[in-house]
Amino acid sequence: MVGVVKNARPAKPGYRCAECGHELAKWFGRCPECQAWGTIEERAAARPGLARVAAGAPSSPARRISEVDVETTRAQPTGVGELDRVLGGGIVPGAVVLMAGEPGVGKSTLLLEVAHRWAEQGSSPVLYVTGEESAGQVRLRAERTGNLHQEIFLAAESDLSAVLGHVEAVKPGLMIVDSVQTVQSTSDTGTVGGVTQVRAVAAALIALAKEHSLPVVLVGHVTKDGSIAGPRVLEHLVDVVLQFEGDRHSTLRLLRGVKNRYGPADEVGCFELRDDGIEGVPDPSGLFLNRKDVGVPGTAVTVAMEGKRPLLAEVQALVAKSHLPSPRRAVSDLDSGRVAMIQAVLERRGKVKLSEQDVFTAAVGGMRITEPAADLAVALAVASAAREVALPADVVVLGEVGLAGEMRRVTGVGRRLAEAARLGFTRALVPPDAGPLPEGIRTLVVPDLGAALQVLYDVAQ
């Protein structure tokens, strides 16, 4: 007999954090380990275990890995190109996808588009379970966005057993649950949307997906700091985690892959949210540029990497004489810490006087740029605004600026410049050791910030 010896422990009541698993002797409102609120649960007393666990009959025989059939696990395209790009080609049968985002960002609109495209393929129906809205409200949104189809079945349910009953009745090929925090399991304790309920509901839906090879998309809420609401174990249980982002004052929406067991986890999909629905943007670089035939003082164009995707972005700066004892420093859609550091380096190493000037910096088009590769663009935009000297309109700049004013190399220079050349840029300022560079664009290596500023000043002469 093959078995595992288990040491029985005496019954001892206690408490455990559902977020990080930290064990406590008494209940606390806040976990002292992970600082999460409301996650301490009473742990059942340990029952004496058997001396041995007998080996049971396996559910299926083990096979050689070369004999495993992979055709049944091939990704099926959803019909939405930008979503398929992030998923790695499509959604895998039996996969559970968690899509999180702030309220009003467009999650439900995107998933209605996915349901419509899936139904148009004609392979199987779609079950759309809504726990936040009535079926009539979803129908009105589908009419407004043009996503009505006879093979889309709506179910306004918040009870888990009723949701499972709808699956047995409809037998869908894709199920969407909007949202997982609104579904309740009557067999488990806890409030709706709480840690215990979310974990129980997610576990039941994951088991359903694996048993019936049914792809399931779960909509998740986010907290004030932007993280996914509910227990952290929820992100570990699902196969794919997607983050839907966007500024409510902009039509641009970005879908980021945070976790993906079936494909790359660093892809980004771009969408444009409109009154009549949502549409993928396969070439979004034009949204972040304000192209002109001649350069304008205070602007510089760089190439940011969103995952593996190079996107051209324009950085703008305005420098004006201040009438305040402490000049203003305003930053929009840029890393304020890095911008402050660049301005200090610019004044100290580049001899650009900013101590008595108000400085405003921003990225164009609603795109947030936080990577160091945009340092040189910020520095040249501020210097250009301070000296009233414009960079040529066909120049793109790349590079990280160090505290000593040196230029540091950035990743993916070749891909960045290839995208710039495709959009008509002919010259580029790059740091040393940039690696192999593409043809079609002339590059000028600038070893430090002084050399880059000299290029800017030479333009004015």
Automatic annotation (TrEMBL):
GO cellular component: cytosol
Region of interest: Lon-protease-like: 358-461
Pfam families from the UniProt entry: AAA_25, ChlI, Zn_ribbon_LapB
Keyword Metal-binding among UniProt keywords: yes
Keywords, sorted A to Z: ATP-binding, DNA damage, DNA repair, DNA-binding, Hydrolase, Metal-binding, Nucleotide-binding, Stress response, Zinc, Zinc-finger
GO molecular function, one term: damaged DNA binding
CDD domains per record: RadA_SMS_N
SUPFAM superfamilies, A to Z: P-loop containing nucleoside triphosphate hydrolases, Ribosomal protein S5 domain 2-like
Annotated ATP binding sites: 101-108
Source organism, top-level taxon: Bacteria
All copies of domain RecA family profile, residue ranges: 72-222
GO biological process annotation, one example: recombinational repair
Motif window: RadA KNRFG motif: 259-263
Family: Belongs to the RecA family. RadA subfamily.
Entry remark concerning the domains of this protein: The middle region has homology to RecA with ATPase motifs including the RadA KNRFG motif, while the C-terminus is homologous to Lon protease.
Function: DNA-dependent ATPase involved in processing of recombination intermediates, plays a role in repairing DNA breaks. Stimulates the branch migration of RecA-mediated strand transfer reactions, allowing the 3' invading strand to extend heteroduplex DNA faster. Binds ssDNA in the presence of ADP but not other nucleotides, has ATPase activity that is stimulated by ssDNA and various branched DNA structures, but inhibited by SSB. Does not have RecA's homology-searching function. Plays a role in repairing double-strand DNA breaks, probably involving stabilizing or processing branched DNA or blocked replication forks.
Name of this protein: DNA repair protein RadA
Species for this entry: Kutzneria albida DSM 43870
